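Backbone shape codes:
***
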Amino acid sequence: MIRAIIESPYGGTPEEVERNTVYARRCMLWALQQGYAPFLSHLLYTQVLNDNNPEERKLGIEAGFAWREFADITLVFLDYGATKGMRLGIRDAKMKGRRVKEERIGKNPYDKAIDCMAETIAEEVDRGLLEYVEKQIVEIDPTAPAQLVTFKT
């Protein structure tokens, strides 16, 4: 097996971290299926270190970099772009003469489902608010301007 460092996004908002964690796991599976022995320090060390704490983040990065000398290649997964941390890993690999290969496996399948679900929820909320407002209206004067409506009190 070819020992590979995997570069993929990790940090961001809680939603982005969740998305990026799913994506990183997909990258790991893809790499295994292609005959690589992948190492993803950002998935490993963030289980015990707080990525939002600068000192702990630095410790995790240093620990990840300690393993790099044993890698044969750095695989860079770009479906969600390249973060500052990824660019740091790419630069390190190039400086040390390690091969860098860009990969794309496609965005997470659930990203589109979440977008669709959010739209559906928004439509349901709008519909629910409309039904609520309609139940609260006692009388509508058809000759009055639209903003003049009598509500139950």
